[in-house]
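Reviewer 2 asked us to include a model.

Predict the structure of this chain.
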Amino acid sequence: MNKDLEISYLEKINQAVAFLKEKISQSPNTGIVLGTGLGGLLHDIEIITEIPYQEIPHFPIATVTSHQGKLILGRVENKIILAMKGRFHYYEGYSMKEVTFPIRIMKMLGIQTLMLSNASGGLNPEFKIGDIMVIEDHIDLFPENPLRGQNLDQFGDRFPDMSEAYCKEMIQLASEIAQQNNISLRKGVYAGVQGPNLETPAEYRYLRTIGADAVGMSTVPEVIVAAQSGMKIFALSAITDLCTPGNIKKINLPDILQAAAKAEPSMRQVLLTLIKYS
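Predicted model (structure tokens):
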């Protein structure tokens, strides 16, 4: 391992953080990663500052058409949040260090709680399109780990424990919020795969066999880095297509966005209430 490359990566983080500290007038409490078709949450946030990704030193640029690239500082009641409108994916050609670069920056800005959302395929036969699932655990099937290489000790342990990556208290609170608002909230295991192609029927059967309830192409790398950094983590999946026998059909991005829009109101309600109490 070339130590200079790791030093260069840390310097990139420091430069991005220094830039953002000049732009951000208030310290955020919570970081939010908004997934496919779920940017409507921003309508419920009092926006303080918007910073296009291309202005931030060394920040990746989102290449997925459904992901707009902005970092947004905002307020939800008395909570200051920092939201990513558009995330990065391994399938875009980025390394895992680039995919998780924003999470490193959030840690350096003092964020202690990370909330993530995504669109995923439902592997559990009880799931329906438009359902939302709280991620209780995940299966990492990516070919690269964001912690590979020399460890940056200021971010956490070399071998971080992942036995409780997702905050049980926040999951319990989300369940209570959903029950109070007559929202059907699923719980399950998310399998993270590299993409960008969708899986074959045989791969769907495999994923279900190894214990996954939903499958997608994001979230896991960010969660690994956030867990190493000691953040409290909460994540929701919008079930946008069904991957169970007899329900598999050809889908495209408009179908996924339409299904995500169906799930969005309930997802927004759960996330907004969680932000207030986080």
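The chain is about 30% helix and 25% strand. Residues 26 and 80 are 7 Å apart (CA to CA). We have added this to the supplementary material.
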